[in-house]
Amino acid sequence: MSDITFIENASATYEVIEQNGPPAMHLPFEKAKVGRAVRVDAPVLNPITNEVLTVSNIIYEHHDDGRPPERAYWVGRKLKKCIFGVVKECTVLKFRNDFDTPWEVTEEKAAGKIMSWQKIRDLQHIEDPQKEVAAMQFVSREFHPNVMGVLDVLQDEEYLLMFMPFCNSGDLFGFVQQAGRFPEPMARFWFKQILEGLAHLQKMGVCHRDMSLENILIDEYTKSLVIDLGMCLRVPYSNHNGAVGDVTGGGLRRLIPPLIPCGKPNYISPEILTSEGPFDGFAIDIWACGVILFIMLVGLPPWEFARPEDPRYKMVAKGKLAKMLNSWQKPISPEAADLLQRMLMENPRDRLSLMEIRDHPWVMEGAEQSELPRDNEGWRG
Questions:
Q1: Which of 148, 165, 182 lies at the terminal end of a domain, its last residue?
Q2: Which of 38, 143, 280, 366 is the least buried, fewest Cβ under 10 Å from its Cβ?
């Protein structure tokens, strides 16, 4: 997407999108490119000590044309379970082109998602990780520091293996749990990075559909990355001739017909919960980012579900977010309350666009801030 097209779409109101043409189904991602995995035990050189150690569970891609592998992954400790298998910490190895000692340890780490083909077959009616792989390869066409990319995707008879950059500091949800809630400068620091990740997805024509604190990983305590593209959609756009195409057509995006609700309950927008009409993929991600910011600033979610039966939701829907927070004895600045209120508008026609959020006074405050702020209160505001 060109910068001009991106700005037009990131600024477009719901009404403009609605008038752009009838709703259109989301587009399929291109089929994932998957290499053939080889798993070996092999000697590995430590270049610092010059020691050679034979290690097990080294995985690399086999090239049928005889090319040497670019790198390998020495699979190590388990990081967490996932629905189809496990995520493990891996050490990236460099190929040495030496028959006796073919691999060399590097300082680079990777996260290896090791998924069982049997579990994929059993559960693909619920979720298909091959779609996540295809989506991650799609957004990785253009590197962005705030969106998780993919290094290699490999397979053998038993497993589908996806290797990603390693983040060593947990997720943003854990940070909020530790802090209770964030001081506003700290919340702004993380929120601006989330907006940059969201901007990259919008530029690629992708709707995430599962934005949450749990899906923001932190690396080195200073950088955040949007992860988990398993539920994302490739947004339809109008080409200049009016036909439906992808983001490269240079036109505005289209609404998408209603789908089965997905995502974490706290973060799902009201129009997705009701599924009564078409939705704007960008607007539902804006809503979820509003909930993310709310939790960072307040320390707890605004509601269980964005439904009128919830009195908290009803107050926000009536424009009384600031009053509600004052009653909870968790006040925030008027500028922050205004931003949250305008991101969490019940009607997506009234919700802020990405460009309006970027230009909001609360986001613009401390525009030169590039480092994580520290204060005498520590984590708590």
A1: 165
A2: 143
Q: Are residues 100 and 234 in the same domain?
A: no
Interacting residues of 166 by C-beta distance below 8 A, sequence separation 6+: 89, 90, 108, 109, 110, 111, 219
Residue whose structure tokens are 């929120």: 191
Q: State yes or no: pLDDT of 321 exceeds 50.
A: yes
Looking at residue 143, the DSSP 8-state letter turns out to be -
Q: What is the pTM of this model?
A: 0.93
Residue 380 in domain: no
pLDDT of residue 213: 98
**What's the domain range around 71?**
35-165
Query: 191 near 293, Cβ under 8 Å?
Result: yes
pLDDT tens digits, residue range 22-40? 999 999 999 999 999 999 9
DSSP assignment string, 30-50: PPPP-EEEEEEEEEEEETTTT
Token pair for residue 325?
């927070």
**Containing H/E element for 338?**
helix 334-343
Q: Is 91 helix (H, G, I), strand (E, B) or coil?
A: strand
Q: Which amino acid is at 301?
A: P
Taking phi over 0 as left and psi of -120 to 50 as alpha, with beta for the rest, 357 belongs to alpha
Q: Give me 180's structure tokens.
A: 């209770």
Which among 210, 228, 280, 285 is annotated as catalytic?
Answer: 210
At 307 the pLDDT is 95
| pLDDT tens column, 53-88 | 999 999 999 999 989 998 999 999 999 998 899 999
Instruction: Give the β-pairing of 152-155 and 35-46.
Output: parallel
- The token pair that represents 16 in the structure block: 């403009």
- In the residue annotation, 285 being an active-site residue is answered as no
Same domain, yes or no, for 192 and 275?
A: yes
